[in-house]
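Thread: "does anyone have the structure for this chain?"

Original post by V.I.:
We have the sequence but no experimental structure in hand. Need at least a predicted one for the grant figures.
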Amino acid sequence: MCPVCAWRDKPTWAVIATDDKSFDRAMLQHMAKRAGAQITDVPASHALYVTRAGVVADVIVTAAQNAS
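Reply from O.Q.:
Generated one for you, C-alpha cells below.
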C-alpha cells in the first residue's frame, strides 16, 4: 500500500475509453473510483489520447482549473 499517495488527498481525474480492448473497463473504473476520480467515459479505443485528443485536452484543462 502507498503510505503517501497524492490521489488520497488531491483531486483526481480519469479518462476511460469505453471501447478499450487492452484493459478491462471494470478494472479501470474500479481504480478510478478507488482514487475518488472525476471519471469521463469516452467512446473510443485504447488510443483515445490520439483519436479523441480534444476530449482529453478538455479534461486536462478542467483539472488544471480546479487544482488547488
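V.I.: this helps a lot. The chain has a mean pLDDT of 91.
O.Q.: and Strands lie at 13-17, 38-42.
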